[in-house]
Write a sequence for this structure.
């Protein structure tokens, strides 16, 4: 099923230009054809194409229904953006597909990239949301310093994954408690600095390891997020 994204569909009754072009020019949809539109806030709409305009396709709403995410808790991943944009873009795409509520580009002492194009990452998240048949768009935050992130989600289980073996860590699977709101910190390729680790653990984060293999930043973030869903599923079984 192909999904179209229109965040203000109920008010505008119109598809954005990119989705209008895809429906009319690529898929050759015509007036009277039915299509599914999502608003990015958890609702799916069955619509009928009223005007097959290639830039401003108009629709009539036939019905709507909630389309909740398959997990109930809030899952947030704060990750230091990679040096190469394409790797960060790949990560946003895959985390959206796997399932995440909030993506926080993390600014650290050893960050390889200190600026990002949030608008570009949001577009990638929208495409991944549609492709993976979800109706809720994850929040992609602006670049946020670590000292601000450590104050977020104080009631959640909060974990910091780092490589320094001199500071004791617990295996992620042992530390994670299924079904709880979760915030995971993933540092840059050069790891968190010792002072950052000290500050974050002092703020109540649990020190965790993702195994014996040395992982790239984007691999570690996707690994940790996937582990949350796998451990949640195992707990329900």
């Amino acid at each position: 099923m192909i999904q179209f994204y229109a965040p203000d569909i109920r008010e505008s009754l119109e598809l954005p230009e990119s989705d209008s072009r895809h429906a009319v020019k690529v898929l050759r949809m015509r007036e009277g054809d039915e299509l599914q539109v999502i608003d990015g806030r958890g609702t799916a709409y069955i619509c009928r194409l009223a005007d097959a305009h290639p830039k401003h396709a108009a629709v009539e709403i036939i019905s709507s229904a909630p389309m909740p995410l398959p997990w109930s808790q809030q899952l947030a991943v704060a990750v230091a953006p990679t040096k190469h944009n394409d790797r960060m873009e790949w990560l946003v795409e895959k985390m959206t597909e796997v399932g995440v509520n909030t993506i926080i580009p993390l600014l650290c002492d050893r960050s390889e990239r200190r600026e990002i194009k949030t608008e570009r990452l949001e577009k990638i998240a929208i495409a991944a949301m549609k492709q993976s048949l979800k109706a809720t768009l994850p929040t992609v935050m602006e670049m946020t310093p670590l000292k601000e992130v450590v104050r977020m989600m104080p009631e959640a289980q909060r974990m910091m994954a780092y490589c320094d073996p001199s500071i004791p860590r617990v295996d992620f699977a042992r530390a994670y408690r299924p079904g709880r709101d979760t915030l995971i910190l993933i540092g840059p390729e050069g790891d968190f600095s010792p002072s950052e680790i000290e500050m974050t653990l002092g703020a109540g984060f649990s020190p965790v390891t993702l195994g014996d293999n040395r992982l790239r930043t984007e691999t570690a973030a996707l690994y940790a997020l996937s582990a949350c869903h796998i451990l949640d599923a195992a707990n329900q079984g």
Remarks:
- DSSP finds eight helices and twelve strands in the chain.
- The longest strand covers residues 43-51.
